[in-house]
Amino acid sequence: MAAVTGLTAHTLRWYERVGLIRPIARTSGGRRRYDEQDVGWVAFLLRLRETGMPVAQMREYADLRAQGPATTRARLAVLERHQAALREQIARLQSHDAALADKIAAYRDTLLGADSRVDGAAS
């Protein structure tokens, strides 16, 4: 699982300990045996984490998921709230990107003007 997800074994154990991953079946030798569903679930958790979902909210979602289909509406609400927050963050980042682009353009214009003055004086 660590190789597939890029998470360390320590992180996977922590995810299990805090309730993000259900208790994993083990071999007779005590090694964890992850199945395809586990891989898909961890991939989804990583996606949530990469979009900035706090661990507490991920835990809330995982708890609802563990309760089964009766919690579908509640899980939908958690994801919709997160998506709304994510879209607000994206809008802020796009605004910051535009401001940086303007500042970079201003510096480039200043440098180009200085370069042309230096080139003109050398001629």
UniProtKB/TrEMBL annotation:
<dbReference type="InterPro" id="IPR009061">
    <property type="entry name" value="DNA-bd_dom_put_sf"/>
</dbReference>
<dbReference type="InterPro" id="IPR047057">
    <property type="entry name" value="MerR_fam"/>
</dbReference>
<feature type="domain" description="HTH merR-type">
    <location>
        <begin position="1"/>
        <end position="64"/>
    </location>
</feature>
<dbReference type="GO" id="GO:0003677">
    <property type="term" value="F:DNA binding"/>
</dbReference>
<keyword id="KW-0238">DNA-binding</keyword>
<dbReference type="InterPro" id="IPR000551">
    <property type="entry name" value="MerR-type_HTH_dom"/>
</dbReference>
<dbReference type="Pfam" id="PF13411">
    <property type="entry name" value="MerR_1"/>
</dbReference>
<dbReference type="GO" id="GO:0003700">
    <property type="term" value="F:DNA-binding transcription factor activity"/>
</dbReference>
<protein>
    <submittedName>
        <fullName>MerR family transcriptional regulator</fullName>
    </submittedName>
</protein>
